[in-house]
Amino acid sequence: MNRLKKFTSFSLRDLAASAGPTILGIAAVCVAAYLIVDPAPPRKVVLGTGQDNSAYDVFGKKYQELLKKEGIAVTLQGSHGSRDNLKLLGEGRTDIAFVQSGSTDQAEAERRGLVSLGSLFTEPVWLFLRTKEGAPPLNQLTQLRGLKINIGARGSGTPRLVRQILEVNGVDREELQTTQLDNTPATVELLEGRIDGLVFAAAADDPLIQMLLQTPGIVLFDFSQAEAYTRRLPFLSHVTLPHGIVDFGRDLPARDYHLIAPTATLVARDDLHPALVELFVQAAAKIHGGAGWFQQQGQFPSAKYTEIPVADEAAKYYKDGAPFLQRYMSFWLANFLDRMWVLLLALSALILPLSKIVPPLYVWRVRSRIYRWYGQLRTVEGAIEDAVEVAKEDRGAIYAAQLERLNEIEDRVNHLSIPLSFANDLYGLRSHVHFVRQRIVGLMGGTPEGIVETSA
After folding, report:
1. So what's the pLDDT on residue 162?
2. What are the distances in angstroms from CA 429 to CA 104, 274, 418?
3. Among 85, 263, 275, 325, which is most exposed with the fewest C-beta within 10 angstroms?
4. What are phi and psi of 217, to 5 degrees?
5. Which of 306, 298, 297 minimizes the C-alpha distance to 265?
């Protein structure tokens, strides 16, 4: 009979069985923390832009292209402009949108749950007028009384801006004949002579503005009191259209023009994922960070020139630059590593208390493989004790059967794989097996024929 005793310095199987539930529990909590406490950023986002071929539309496509490289699908949602975009944000139909400064105020933005990602570029107020033969150029907005002026499309921020400008000039909107056509049809109406003027609030690279700046018979209004406007309406800034910048060869414009300008801002719902806020701000730096007609290199994007509270992540970017990890690795990998602190927090809360449970479980599991044989020994002893109540001639068969059973138990015990630190428990079990055998042999009056006594 093979009685090979197996000893190991350590039982990986028992450790795995003891620590397995604990490890699975920790993993489950970590996954839950990762997904619930700080979920991964969505891969789809809706950006509110503006009218077709407007600056908002053009820039929206640039954001779409840049974020596509980072695995973010940007859907562009057209609109008439800032007021429409604010409405779309409030209804949850867009996640982020272009909004002109002055279109809302801080109280309204906070009530709607909106935050700014910063200002992107200036949007000068362009008042284009038809020239009248023999008439001097207009130099005061009060001279607009009685004229037919398109003040911007419904849903854009321009009509509200025009009302504010007229108000500080003491001009009631009712004193003008106003229309609210989209930019393209309004330009057609101006060129056809059916209206006297139109107002844009847009970036200088808007195709319609570029065309009107070079169209004979159309003049640009000079806001000679531009600096005063910025005092009365703080969301405006004073910018200058430099002499000759439109066309040096044709000397257009023939002199400097003073303009007043709100700024275009990126506005998002305050539940937009922080990682997407960072990604959009970084994209804004690439798109709007260069020099232009009205801005210096690096002037935009900026946390200035916006009445809407700036998101914390955006403010941090303007102060410290891009997050450290995102400077050297992809967005998704950097975001994953940045969010690992959630897992570390979960692990620190679980590992210490659970680590105190694993060692006792390990000891219990190893010893349970020894202790369960004591149950078998107790069964054998019970059978021996019950044998005194049967006929004397039948007791020998019972003792012989229990002795055979005891040999099987010993053989199984000898094949147990037990760590060396528990060898004392194993040898204790084997001595108890030997003790029970000696008792059976004693009751039988010696070693029964055909059964060889095993040694401990």
Report:
1. 94
2. 84, 63, 12
3. 325
4. 85, -5
5. 306
Whether residue 245 sits in one domain with residue 291: no
| HSE value, Cβ hemisphere, 13 Å, CA-based, for 314 | 30
What's the number of domains the chain is made of? Answer: 3
What 3 state SS string does 424-449 have?
HHHHHHHHHHHHHHHHHHHHHCCCCC
Mean pLDDT of 373-395: 82
Distance CA 246, CA 218 (A): 14
Alpha carbon distance 137, 451 (integer Å): 129
Helical packing angle, 358-386 and 12-32, nearest 10°: 130
342: confidence class by pLDDT, cuts 50, 70, 90: low
Determine the structural domain holding residue 384 and report its residue range: 1-37+358-447
Q: What is the CATH number of the domain that holds 132?
A: 3.40.190.10
Higher pLDDT, 219 or 412: 219
d(CA 48, CA 432): 83
Between CA 154 and CA 180 the distance in angstroms is 6
For residue 119, which phi and psi values (nearest 5 degrees)? -85, 145
Q: What is the pLDDT of residues 182-241, one digit of tens each?
A: 999 999 999 999 999 999 998 888 889 999 999 999 999 999 999 999 999 988 999 999
H or E, element range at 218? strand 218-220
Taking only the tens place, the pLDDT of each residue in 137-151 is 898 999 999 999 999
pLDDT of residue 36: 63
Q: Which two tokens stand for residue 395?
A: 């007791």
Note the pLDDT of residue 166.
Answer: 95
Domain identity same for 249 and 282: no
User: Do residues 149 and 134 both lie within one domain?
Assistant: yes
**Residue at which a domain ends, from 214, 236, 261:** 261
